[in-house]
Design a protein that fits this description.
This protein has 2 domains: about 1-95 and about 225-295, Phage tail protein beta-alpha-beta fold (3-Layer(bab) Sandwich); about 125-215, Jelly Rolls (Sandwich). The protein has helices at about 15-30, 35-50, 65-70, 70-80, 215, 230-245, 265-275; strands spanning about 5, 90-95, 100, 110, 115-120, 130-140, 145-150, 155, 160-165, 170-175, 180-185, 190-195, 195-200, 205-210, 225-230, 245-250, 255-260, 280-285, 290-295. The protein is of the alpha+beta class. α1 (about 15-30) packs across α2. It has 7 helices and 19 strands.
């Protein structure tokens, strides 16, 4: 049985007046050097609430330039979503793209930008197995064991929802509902995750567990990206993927950021990230952004 693949694009945000009010508040925000990043973020949110009654977060939005190029992106998907003569099927998303994939058993996988999955439709009834790189949200229909291989990890469930982030040298698995088993292929370590917990596997194969926010962990499927003490370099990496741009940043990528951005507007995302971090940015051209310190 063939899997049903569906890609959806949302209309761009047209509420420029409200966004301008928000950015006016952002520009007027003066962050003293003695403030912590968390205090600066709270000041930012307070200013935003004073200037506009409309929320900054827009549900299921895509940046304006992405929406304008929707026809071209769909054309790229037609090329990318080809069916191989072999048993394995490959589905990929480029930068600025997301996709929803229906597997043969009606389980659902939502692919974030810059993500690839592989699976075998012909052998699916015998083995529910997906390989992936990037980030994906899984909603697994209850049944026999469902496994996902991502870099140095094997994640196994029977029927649940979970998120896997597998980029560079780190894999992070977060359980949202049900139970999720995560195994490191390097160390052999195994852990069982319950809702609100996650497991991280680093480049050496070590497995560590921790707590996760169920409310924020997989909000990227709605175009919302939340970060808690995340390295600023990884935040900029996500902006690059969502808006298909190149960010030039010579500062420390280890500085941590707590906050959010949405993929509805590049300028909005840059303001929400840069202002609390006391950074400035310059749009060099349509695909290049330079970010630098205010010092």
């Amino acid at each position: 049985m063939k899997a049903k693949n569906r890609i959806g694009f949302s209309k761009p945000n047209s509420d420029d007046k409200n966004l301008e009010m928000v950015f006016t508040a952002l520009r007027r925000l003066n962050v003293p050097a003695t403030r912590t990043k968390e205090e600066a973020w709270q000041m930012l949110l307070a200013k935003m609430e004073e200037r506009t009654s409309s929320p900054v977060i827009q549900h299921h939005r895509i940046g304006k330039f992405v929406a304008m190029a929707a026809a071209a992106i769909i054309g790229l998907f037609i090329v990318t979503w080809f069916f191989l003569n072999s048993d394995e099927r490959k589905i990929s998303t480029g930068y600025g793209e997301m996709a929803t994939v229906y597997l043969p058993d009606s389980s659902v996988v939502i692919l974030n930008s810059g993500t690839t999955i592989w699976y075998s439709p012909n052998s699916w009834s015998k083995q529910r197995l997906v390989r992936m790189q990037g980030e994906a949200f899984f909603k697994v229909k209850h049944g026999k064991k469902f496994s996902v291989i991502a870099s140095k990890t094997i994640t196994s469930v029977l029927g649940t929802t979970f998120n896997i982030f597998a980029r560079d040298t780190e894999v992070r698995v977060t359980c949202l509902t049900g139970k999720v088993q995560v195994k490191s292929k390097v160390s052999g370590m195994t852990t069982l995750l319950l809702p609100g917990s996650n497991a991280k596997v680093n480049r050496t194969g070590d497995l560590q567990t921790g707590k996760a926010s169920i409310d924020n962990e997989a909000k990227w499927v709605e175009g919302k990206f939340y970060f808690q003490q995340e390295g600023i370099g990884r935040v900029f990496d996500e902006i690059e993927r969502q808006f298909k741009v190149n960010i030039i940043y010579d500062g420390s990528r280890l500085r941590t950021y707590t906050g959010f951005f949405t993929n509805s507007s590049l300028n909005e995302a840059l303001n929400l990230v840069c202002i609390p971090m006391q950074l400035h940015y310059e749009r060099i051209d349509s695909t290049t952004v330079k970010i630098f310190s205010s010092n």
